[in-house]
Amino acid sequence: MLDIARKQLGAIWQLAAPYFRAREETTTHFGPLGTWTVREAWVGRALLLAIVATEFAQVSLTVWFNYWNALFFDALQNKDLPAFWQQLIVFSIIAAAFILVSVYQLYLNQWLQIRWRRWMTHSYLDHWLGGGAHYRMRLKGEPADNPDQRIADDIAMFVEQTLSLGIGLLSAVTTLASFGVILWGISSQVPLVIAGYELAVPGYLVWIAAVFSLVATIGAHLIGRRLIGLKFHQQRLGADFRFGLARLREHAEQVALMGGESAERSLHSRRFASLVGNWHDIMRRQKMLTFFTAGYNQAAVILPYAILARPFFTGQIPLGTLMQTAGAFGQVQTSFSFFVSAYARLAEWKAVVDRLSGFERETVLAREHTAGGGAMVEGGASGSSLSVADLHVTTPDGTLLLENMNFAVESGQALLLRGPSGCGKTTLLRAICGFWPYSGGRVALPNGGRVLVLPQAPYLPLGSLRAALAYPAEEHTVAEPDLHHALAKAGLAGLVASLDHVAPWSSVLSPGEQQRLGFARALIAQPDVLFLDEATSALDEASEAYLMRTIRAELPNAAIVSIGHRSSLVSQHHRVIDLGQQLALVQSA
Questions:
Q1: Residue 193 — φ and ψ, nearest 5°?
Q2: Within a domain: residue 8?
Q3: Is the domain of 207 the same as that of 340?
Q4: Suppose 543 and one of 199, 251, 321, 539 were both cysteines; which one would form an S-S bond, judging by CB atoms 3.0 to 4.6 Å apart?
Q5: Is 436 helix (H, G, I), strand (E, B) or coil?
Q6: Full-model pTM
Q7: Which domain covers residue 389, as residue numbers?
Q8: Structurally, how many domains does the chain consist of?
Q9: What is the rounded CA–CA span in Å between residue 269 and residue 287?
Q10: Which residues contact 545 (CB under 8 A, 6 or more apart)?
């Protein structure tokens, strides 16, 4: 149990601590103080310190209010009107201070939340996108499901719940220390009476609250521990359902043309049924936990009055002391019961921590998985733009696909890698680019050279056509004449007027137009090495020939490596390597 708790605390620390050690500088507006550029970590620490200070102020005001309780109810019991009005004035001061502190605590908490979430989001995006980790995770099976949901939702939940639960725990400890002293002192003034016998038990009211809360904490854990796994699965199932609907929207045309609505409805209904079933499990477990905690809370309200009823009715303590004791007992009992009242939130928080920790772990493993294997890709190709030496490629289970691949592509030359489907053409490209871990050999690229890959289905990001055309560069970095020239050369001159239109371009443009757009990107990027992975498969042979001639004329110094199986591609390249023959040799060996 201690080992599990230690690991969990270590995971929480690993997620939370980096923000408060961040070295990045940020520009922050501090109201009337103006705008300052400071380290983000210092801003986060200052905000956290201010939140903690407001929490201490709230506890102090609560203690003051507890003492006010005794004086106020004594004034009522004694029918002391001047004291009554005086205590109302004191109450107004306490209430005004409490309102001010509560408002600024919420404001500072929200300010820290958005800054912390922004920093974590940028950090996770860097980890996920850096070094192609997002793609490497897919190659190794991507056990971290729904990375988008973890970045978009789990980070926000982690930040909000970490602050909420952390400040709540701090409040519980501070309140326990403050009111424990008060309750301990009252215990010495009011003896414990059991069956008519007075017992001298130092601080017995504190011990009763502690035992009462301990029993409730154990009960809440036994009833609610299954909520942790259920909450984890609920987040995963919800993300899967949303992802499926988003995927349906992206492929609406194919679904409509094939009449696949019935199959899609059945698929999404099953996914939603799983989500609903898990939710019903949560409901049943939450119902049991709520029965327990609600009964416990109601018993906690009446318990101090039951304990002090005899001393009050025998005149040993006045009404003010009774009310002060009940208030102090309630505060101590609530502090001891922090884990009972927060158990459902703790279960949800643990699920979020597990998901984010798992995501971090998988991004690291994806890098290590590929760093420990794969062809060595380096700069310094001498005499050629691309050089491949002794390259071999296997499947994840160790089956050999290609071996002893040796070739070089000079600047201005074009090489075609052709062969039947399944012979390893695309896998070879992954190995050359350094993404396929199940390979070996050496790949040399020109020092500082630009490499661009045009896949069969170009990726079109959300936004304007200008952004899609400039990708992977940012749209503002490409001059207007270059955009117009690239579209015209790619046979898309009619789209010049739509450059600033925002639309789902992957659905608006036909597959052939999307491939033409890919060639326009190559003209803008001016790469030193250009890989074409079935990049003309959606075009007719005449358009294919035109684009290949255009790309060679516009990029005279680029080394071009094409992957395809059409015979018409042969005449557009200087050399051809038949990977089908390579595969046959491997299989015969």
A1: -115, 120
A2: yes
A3: yes
A4: 539
A5: coil
A6: 0.68
A7: 376-588
A8: 2
A9: 26
A10: 568, 571, 572
